[in-house]
Amino acid sequence: MTQAAPWQLEILGLRSARGDYCWLDLAAPPEWQSRPGQFVNIRCDDAADATVSGQEIPWTGDGLPDAPHGRHLHGPSPLVRRPISISRLIDDGDGSRRLVLLVRVVGSGSQLLSNRKAGDRLDVIGPLGNGFDLGGPARRAVLVGGGCGIAPLVGLADALAASGRSVTVFYGERSADRVPLPLPESARPTGDGVVALRGTPQLPGADLILATEDGSLGFKGRVTDAMAAWGASCGWDDAELFVCGPDVMMAAVAALARVRGVERCQVSLENYMGCAIGVCLSCAVKIRADNAQGWTYKLVCRDGPVFEAGDVIFENKWEGCKK
Amino acid sequence: MSAAVNVTLGRIAMRNPVMTASGTSGYGQELAEFFELKALGAFVTKAITRAERLGNETPRLVETRAGMVNAIGLANVGLEVFLKDKLPWLREQGVPVIVNVAGSTIDEYVAVASALDGAEGVDGLELNISCPNVKAGGLEFGRSDKAIRDVVGAVRQAVKRATLIVKLTPNVTDITAMARAAIEAGAEALTLINTLSGLVINARTRRPVLANVFGGLSGPAIKPVALKMVYDVYRTVAREAGVPIIGVGGIQTGADAVEFLLAGATAVQVGTATFVDPRASVDVAAGIASYLDENGFENVSELIGGLRVG
Question: Which residues from A are below 8 Å from B54, CB to CB?
Answer without folding.
Answer: 296-297
